[in-house]
Structures are given as C-alpha cells and as structure tokens.
Amino acid sequence: MLKGFGTVLAKELRELVRDPKILLGMIIVPLIMFPVLGSIMNFSIQSAAEQAKKASALVIDRDGGVYAIAFMESLKANGVKTYNLTNVNPEEAVNSGLLSEYNTTQIIEIPNGFSENISRHLAGETNVTTYVKLYSVFSGSGIVEDVGSSLIDLLVERLNRQYAPDIMGTRKASIIKGQIYENVDPRTLSGLMISQAIAMPITIMILLTYSMQIAATSVAMEKEEKTLETLLTLPMDRFAILMGKLSGSILVAGIGALAYMVGFNYYMGSFASFSAVSGLDLASVGLAPSLLGYLLLGISLFVTLLSALALAVILSAFAEDVRSAQSMVGYIYPFLFVPSLALMYVDINMLPLAARIALYAIPYTHPIIASKSVTMGDNLTAALGIVYVAVFTLVIMYVASRLFATEKILTIKLKFKGFRKREKSVAAE
Amino acid sequence: MITAVEATELIKVFGNIKALDGLNLKINAGEIFGIIGPNGAGKTTCLRVISTLLLPTSGSVKVFGLDVAADAAEVRKIITYLPEEAGAYRNLSGWEYLQFMASFGARNKEEKRVAVQEAAEICGLGDRLRDKVKTYSKGMKRRLLIARALMPKPRLAILDEPTGGLDVLHSYHIRGIIKRYAKDRGATVLLSSHNMLEVEHLCDRVALVNKGKVVAEGKPVELRDRYGSVNLEDVFAKVVGLA
Predict the structure, then answer these.
(1) Among residues of chain A, what percentage have pLDDT more than 90?
(2) Core-most of A49, A147, A176, B81, by most CB within 10 Å?
(3) Residue A62: which domain range?
(4) Does A232 lie in the same domain as A109?
C-alpha cells in the first residue's frame, strides 16, 4: 500500500462529503431526478396501454362476407370499438371529418373479395391471399401511433394462425395533416420521427450545459481574481458588463453548437439507411418545418439560451470561486435533463395535467416542444412557447441587471452563506 | 485647499456586523493619504465605499464634492481603484490588458496609445508585457495593476494594500511609482496598509482605523510626537490600549 494514501483519501472524502454543493449536486439531485424521469416514462407507457384499451376504428367493409364479419368480431373481442361505414371511401371519411365525428384516429378497410380469397386459400389455392388496410392518423405523439398499427398486426397474425399461415396480410397508410399517404406505416413514421426528434433534446442539453458553464465561470473567475471589482469602478454602464458577458458566452456556445451539429449530422447520417429501407423521408410526407417553423425554432432556441445564461450569471453571483459557481449551475441541470430525456420518447399531451404544467413551466422544455410542433405544422404552440420563455428571460435579465447595478453582486454571497460565514467574510477584509 | 475626500459619520452594516462605525475622514487634494490598521479594522470597506462599490448604510462620502451614492457614475470618471490581491485576465498579455483597460478612459486611439505607453513605462516590465499575465510573478502582476490604476490619470487613485504580500524589491519599486506619480501629477492617492512602517515613509498623512472608526489622524511625525512613540506601530498600540 502506498504510504500516506489512506490519510489523503480520508481527508479528501471528509472534505468532499462536507461540501453541501457536492452533496446536493452529485447525490441528492440524481436521487430525485431519475425517479421523476422514471415516473414520467412509466406514466406514458401506462397511458399508451389505456389508449390501446380504448381503441376505436371506423370500419369500411367492402366485402360483407363471412370472414369479414369474423374479422370485425375479432376486433370487438379485442376491445376495439368499431363503427361500420358503407358507401364511403377512406378519402371521403377523412375529408368529411368522420374521424373527429366518431372521435377516432383509425380507419380499417376490408377489401372486396376478402372472404372469397380466404375461402380459395383454404380450398387449396395457397397462392391466393388477402389483406386488411389500416389508415391511421399521424399526429407525432409517439407511442400512441404504434398502438393501432401493432393491434392490426397482432390480429392478422392470430387469424393467420387460426386459418392458415400467410393467408392474410396488412397494408398501411398514414393520414398526415388531413392527407392520405399510401404505404406509409405510422409505426415506421413514428420510429423515424423519434430517431430524428432526439436531435433537439440532445442539442439543448449539450448547448445549455456548455454555455451555462461558460457564463458561470466567466463571472466567478472575475470574482475569484477580483477583476470584477475593478470593472465595477470603471466609468462604464454596468449593464454593459452583463450584456458583454452574456453575448460572449452566447457566441462561444454558438460556435460550440455549430461544431456539435456538424458532428451530430454525421451521426444522424446513420439513420439515412433506415430511411432508404422504409423508402420514406419525413419531408416527403409533409413532416418538415416550414420556413416560418424554422425561424420560430431558431428564436425559441435563442431565447432559451439567453434565459439559461442569465440564470447561470445570477447563480454564479452567489459563488465565491469557479468551483462553487460550477456546482451551483449544476442545480439547474435536473430542470434541463428531465424534460429533455422525457420528451425524447413521450408526447407531452399524454401526461397528466400536473406533469404537463410542471414541464411547461420549465423554459428549457419549449424548444423541444417547438421542434415537434413546427414539424407537425403547429406554429402557434412554438410561438406561445417563445412568448413564455421571453417573459421568463426578461424577468431573469432584470434580476441579473439589478444584481450588477448594486453592491449585491459583491455582497450576495455573504447573505447566502449564512450569518456565521458573513461575520467571517466581513471581518476578513 | 481643495478637499479630495470627505467622509462624515460613515456607517456600513453587513447583517448584524458594523464594519464602519461613524468613520470621519478628510483628505486634501494632492496628498498621499494612508489608512492603516489591523485586519478587520474596516479599511477595505472604507475604500470600497469611496470607490462606489458599496453604498453607505448611513453618513456620507464626497469625492471632490461628488456624493458616492447619488453621483456614483460621475465619481467613477475621476477615480481608479485597485482591490487588494486583485488579478488581471490570465490569458491576455500584459500589453493587451493595458489596452483593454485604457479603452474605458481614452477618448480616441491616440489617447489610448499614449496611455498604454505611459503605463508600460510606469510598470517597467519591458518585453515581458508581451507575455500572458498567467506567466507573471505576484510582484510583476502588482506592478502591472498599479500602472493600470495610474494610467487614466485619475484625480484620486485608491489603492488597497498596494504592496501586500510582495518582496522587498517589488515593494520598493511600487512605492517609488506611487511617490513619483503623486509628485509629478499632483494627484491624490489614498491607500490602505497594515504595514505601518511602510506607510510612515510613503504617506503625507495617515488615519489609524480600529473597529470601523478613525482613532488617530495626522502626519506620521506629528503622531509619533503626540504619543511619544518611535514609530506608527507604537502609536497604534498606545491608541488602542495595547501598550
């Protein structure tokens, strides 16, 4: 054993464990953060299961034969509430608003000759097969979109097992923004969208953590080196110090984000093969933001970045040195990681009201929501998010500017540290 | 005679602690004035209030007739402040640091160039000004910062422990800079120190501060005579009842 190792280790542990910032940031926060995240994921899976139980569909039976009736019975037996339609084709059902009238998102079409083809197959003509067709509304909500598609696959598989293997297949189409896209499986679409939707939460997490560290360090460094005191006595506007620091951090973070996105682009390239296999890319089915959507997304990202930086500057004002500042910024991370990780796979609208309000209250949620909403053509949600984050940012900027305008930027740590430390700090001058 | 600084019944409270407790001070223009006292006497708090960093809890401070609370922006135009143990930006060179600081006072490029040139001469760091500040010794850094504080030709330079923690050579150099600057420019210098012997040789007048109050004030020689002491350290010990 190295001589003195145990003594140094014991001292190190004692010092680290007694540091409340480390205790809170590294132990308490993860203990709270991951259960919260787990609950959100768990709830979303449960609500998907609930959705499956409440599944309903419009059924267009063009066959009317015995096997078509058996198929519909099978749907009912599996808890799918069906509404039979006659003399209507799927386009008409979509355009005439029948889906919302019956409060469903699925249309199942049983083609003409369905029963006959099954009978022929059973009679020995094994090359004769048939299919059922599912039209499913794609709203970008992730897990829910999988439900209808999976259920149909499951039922068809069961019937195949009951009658004969490969007697029946499925064909799928997606209804996107009121338009039917043939041969586009909503489940494939959902998978593709999730794989691409991961980009924004990861970007947000990396961009904000880096830039907040930069901003907090830049203020704490000024305090640690006492250059801030010098700056505050110069004949200049103190708000300029704050804005200079924020702008510098934004520029550095922006360059970092650009470098990151270039790298991430190569990573996302791996999904191109997935697109090639499915013969599908999101833009071709209208799942790409408009120019206005991109603009809103950019603004959303910018105001969120600004609010995070201003918050980091405020927190670092409480710190005496760089290490403390970085620990303090760490307190914000759960508010960044929970929505980012949760919203990678879960649609916010599937969550209970309290969870939704909590997530909407966190400003870092909004660029993630905006990225999904502008893709679905919902620019209003993105715009409302921007307004909320902008107001939040203004409040934070006001507090930060007040801190810089008064002696609090120098003295606030004294109050934060409590009375006993305050005495020491004052006496130390 | 013009009054450079006038503090009247100055009180500064942090929570339940009275860092300054009715401090009175009058500094004449053109003199080097020293505030001396032990650690925790209130020296730095006093300098921070005069330099507009802290607001007085009560009482008033005027710098060349301008109130530090009401006219803070105007006060900042005529003062410079050097905090105790201050640093400079580590990744800038000494030259770049002086250029950055000169940008705040200079009205045009020529003024800035002249100011930086003068500061380079004051600090006497020569070619080392091209090196990054993080490579400087403590003494070199302090010389750079003193030059920065004197560079804009302030009417009042406030220097907190200008030679604190430095070796004899650097301390000697810095004392020389301060003396020459005050004499050549007729500027007022207010400095603090707990090195009473140093202040005795450098300052025209001194104030002895203890527990947030001025307990004695005058020329070093007058104070020595008044208390029958050999140096200011003895004077302080007698004033606060240690001797």
Answers:
(1) 6
(2) B81
(3) 55-187
(4) no
- Residues A84 and A59 sit within 8 Å (Cβ to Cβ): yes
Q: Are residues A295 and A319 in the same domain?
A: yes
Residue A34 located in a structural domain: no
Same domain, A174 and A207: no
- Distance of alpha carbon A254 from alpha carbon A248, whole angstroms: 10
Residue A154 lies in a domain: yes
Regarding whether A361 and A294 lie in a shared domain, the answer is yes
Same domain membership, residue A216 and residue A116: no
Cβ under 8 Å to A: B residues 77-106: 77, 79-90, 101, 104-105
Residue A380 burial (CB count, 10 A): 10
Under an 8 A CB cutoff, do B55 and A407 touch?
A: yes
CA distance A245 to chain B (A): 14
End residue of a domain, out of A187, A218, A240 = A187
Q: pLDDT tier at A264 (50, 70, 90 boundaries)? A: low
User: Is A46 a domain residue?
Assistant: no
B31: CB partners within 8 A, 6+ apart: B4, B182, B188, B189, B203, B204, B205
Provide CB contacts within 8 A for A402, sequence distance 6+: A408
Same domain, A165 and A252: no
**Where do the domains of chain B lie?**
3-86+154-239
Q: Are B94 and B125 in contact (CB under 8 A)?
A: yes
DSSP string computed for A298-357: HHHHHHHHHHHHHHHHHHHHT-SSHHHHHHHHHTTHHHHHHHHHHHHHB-GGGS-HHHHH
Average pLDDT, integer, range A93-101: 84
Mutate to test the interface with A, among B21, B44, B68, B76 (most CBs of A within 10 A): B76
Work out the minimum CA distance from A240 to partner chain B, whole angstroms: 12
CB contact under 8 A, B40 and A429: yes
Q: Which of A86-95, A256-265, A282-291, A298-307 has the lowest mean pLDDT?
A: A256-265
Binary contact (A429, B77; C-beta < 8 A): no
CA distance B88 to chain A (A): 6
A235: which chain B residues are within 8 Å (Cβ-Cβ)?
A: 73, 76-77, 104-105
Chain B residues close to A236, C-beta within 8 Å:
104
Domain B3-86+154-239, CATH: 3.40.50.300
The answer to whether A46 faces chain B, any CB pair under 8 Å, is no
Same domain, A323 and A352: yes
Domain total of chain A = 2
Sheet strand arrangement including B3-14: B17-28, B3-14, B58-63, B66-67
Residue numbers in A near B84 (CB within 8 A) = 226, 429
pTM: 0.73
Question: What does the pLDDT read at residue B13?
Answer: 94
Check CB contact of B237 with chain A, cutoff 8 Å: no
